[in-house]
Amino acid sequence: MMPGWSPSMKVLGMDWSKRHRESEVSCNIDDFVDNANVDSSRFVVVHGAGSFGHFQASISGVHKGGLDQSLVKASFVATRISVTTLNLEVVRALAREGIPSIGMSPFSCGWSTYEKNITSADLAAVAKAIDSGFIPVLHGDAVLDELQTDVLGVYDRPPIEPNAVLLREIAVGKNGKWSVVKPVLQNMDKQGVKTTAAAHDTTGGMETKIAEAAMIARLGIDVYIVKAATNHALKALSGELRDNIPDDWSGTVIRFVS
């Protein structure tokens, strides 16, 4: 509700658009003649995609990347059409209640991610809208990812770096400390692994991911990090790797060693 609003006050609807199969706008423009100024609060509305967008995105797995493929690119377009359609309906609903709302898409505002973590979130346009007396309405959106890496497991450094090595087996001791067993690195502990979180990595970087897996491994439960929909994943799911990791298996297993 807007400051100073009461149930007895007349709502000045702001949806002057002509909707499909409607010949006239749903609001009375003449009501604004004697109400030049509309007070508004300084806040932002954010809504998700709901049932909009997820269906289109799941058809091609657009969240996994691959915009060089025509199907993925078409799915990206279809997803954005769907989520912006929902956003328009939310904005219209607010406008009909006299709230000066403005739909703002993260994609159009220049937001981007790196491996699904936000790297760019320019809020200048949002702040300007608020300062101008509007209510920004942001929504769940499809944005471009600077690098969508599809890898086999955990590496000793970012897999895009030259000479990155796949860590095939990590041992966890009783104290929770872990070390790389296969392959044999120059330093036989985590010091041989680049675990520093990048500035854009809101999940804490690779060290946090391994630490969380190590907590599970301490319970005697092997943890497999492997590329989905591959024979390597099938072997992990079927239990073939419980006693031995074959040389032709590509992935990372994290297990407790007493």
List the keywords.
5 helices; 258 residues; single chain; alpha/beta
Give a structural overview:
- With 258 residues, the chain is α/β, with parallel strands linked by helices.
- Helix content is 24%, strand content 15%.
- It contains five helices and ten strands.
- It has a four-stranded mixed sheet with strand order 8-7-10-9, with helices on one face. A three-stranded parallel sheet has the order 1-5-2.
- Strand 7 (169-172) and strand 8 (178-182) form a beta hairpin.
- Helix 1 packs antiparallel against helix 2.
- It starts with 44 loop residues before the first strand and ends with a strand.
- Mean pLDDT is 76; it is low at 188-192 and 195-204.
- One of its GO terms (molecular function) is isopentenyl phosphate kinase activity.
- Residues 39-146, 149-226 form the Aspartate/glutamate/uridylate kinase domain.
- It comes from Quercus rubra (Northern red oak).
- Keywords: ATP-binding, Kinase, Nucleotide-binding, Transferase.
- This is Aspartate/glutamate/uridylate kinase domain-containing protein.
